[in-house]
Give the backbone structure.
Amino acid sequence: MVEPHMYEVEVLGQRYTVEHVPNLLVEGERCEGACYVSERTVKIDDALRYQDARYNRVLKHELMHAALRTSGLAELMDLRMEEAICVLAESISIK
Ligand SMILES: [Zn+2]
């Protein structure tokens, strides 16, 4: 289980806060994760803290959004391409 408190990660030299949010909504819709580059914040639905594998997949996905947007690469692609790269990043694991 991931601890309930917020923590920070670094993406391309930028400090991002990871927040756990009960019933996370993005534009009125339930979401497992969200990335807010201007706020340097990644939000993850609090319920995922009890599902380690799913939590890690969502965190990697959102951190890839953070990296693509922080670097400016996201501006060179459409949203479908950005999303595809983030889904790909979910499968990266280090053992
Ligand atoms: Zn995404």
Remarks:
- The chain has a mean pLDDT of 95.
- The radius of gyration is 13 Å.
- Residues 74 and 91 are 20 Å apart (CA to CA).
- The pocket of zinc ion is lined by residues 61, 65, 83, 86 (CB under 6 Å).
